[in-house]
Amino acid sequence: MSRQPKKPFRSREWFAAPHRSDMAALYLERFMNYGLTPQELRSGRPIIGIAQTGSDLSPCNRIHLELAQRTRDGIRDAGGIPIEFPVHPIFENCRRPTAALDRNLAYLGLVEVLYGYPIDAVVLTTGCDKTTPACVMAASTVDIPAIVLSGGPMLDGWHEGELAGSGTVIWKSRRKLAAGEIDEDEFLKRACDSAPSAGHCNTMGTASTMNAVAEALGLSLTGCAAIPAPYRERGQMAYETGRRIVEMAYDDLRPSQILTRESFLNALSVVACAGGSSNAQVHIMAMARHAGVKLVPDDWSAHAYDLPLLVNMQPAGKYLGERFFRAGGVPAVMWELHNAGKLQGGCLTVTGKTMAENLQGRASRDRDVIWPYAEPMMEKAGFLGLSGNLFDFGIMKTSVISENFRKQYLSRPGQEGIFEARAVVFDGSDDYHNRINDPALGIDESCILVMRGAGPLGWPGSAEVVNMQPPDALIQRGITTLPTLGDGRQSGTSDSPSILNVSPESAAGGGLSWLQTGDVIRIDLNAGSCNALVSDAEIARRKQTLPPPPIPASHSPWEELFREKTGQLSEGATLEFALKYRAIAQKTPRHNH
User: Which among 98, 466, 504, 549 could bridge 461 via Cys, Cβ 3.0 to 4.6 Å?
Assistant: First the structure.
């Protein structure tokens, strides 16, 4: 007797088309031209989509062009029918003016494919930063069975016998270039040596972070996130993922059953203990809101700050992706959290089991890479939310606060964790690069560099431009880091302790719009506050008399639409109108002829 699904597969509405044989013929006919048979599509077996994010334009995800075959093998062996289709490309490094524009665009396109075509379940192929949230957001909106298959990081990069981490090596080399320690040829060589194979960033940048988040949420098979792209285990994981999604289709195991507030709090904990990217704040908020899960900005301080750093991986640590994988990867980190009572172990996952069941026996095999919870690399090393008269929400990744930075700014006797600095304000990255070395600005150790015009409306899209380095003259004196603050984002591979994702942004009338160079900013990490020491009367005067900061015109139809419909970083920079659409596949779209 053939297996029966928990509920009829939605593809039957196309290929069986009750009472409409004319429509069934229309839907079937063109699939025949590349060799599929009516018997396959009308067999009652589930149609499994493979959402293909890999392409020549998306080198971080390009490995999925090869992995798709193993995924297909798994789907076929488990009794499903695979259908592969493209997803709008996203390439963080190369997309101008910013790849942040593409997350919501890829989301929209994927929703339409999953809703409007005869797909019963889907394998979401992820890798580069924003491919993970785009796919998960779409899966929540449609709510058909979905599983995440990440492509994995590159092999470890090496330069002259030292580990060279993707992204991180660029920010470090940028300082060396400014200090006169290397030339431009050496700069390029270091960068190229950090990318030795297929895969996404081999550091704990945003790509590794977001794929760890997918696993922490319960959307990937256990151990999926950290497998390096070229390893044999990556192909094996693709096969097992293909097999598992067929079972999920029969069981009707959907994202709405997996994505709960508890699973999102698990993700926050993992990001904190892994030294993950500050960009995770934006994407986790977006995924939660599309899933109908209530997360608020304060949850970052409440659930992701007072946690230790456990993963010794660049940029917060020493090692790269291969060593992290061999040390046990994400399951080993979650095992530490579970044993410490800091994980919601009862959350359901795509395995059909609870997270606690998945994690059994997953203790780390390398304590130099994944440290015990009771003996961590750093205490209170998570993400701190801040607010004040300049913004309602900003976030700081504290695991990258160096000893030198802590000594310089956060160790004044009786004022530990508190410092004041003179603001130097820049309107976009071009302004910063044009003026950072201007002696007239008088930039010294007492300054904080402020970037505005870099948020969803101002850029548009929000750009990774807040990780500003000091003027060359300071770097040549050995001062490699100044406090930075901005309404944009920062590369997850950066080791700069910045206040990021400031909301509302200057282009939306936030406090940075009236801030002026020379104002003193007081930052209190103990209270989670950041305030310009400017009187209320003076603030009111500036709001009335100062011209708004410059905002570039939109240069494409999508930029204009993005600006019109997108919210602030604190709330995930989502398309606000789209949040009301959830579980739309529960109703089949009407016929097209």
Answer: 98
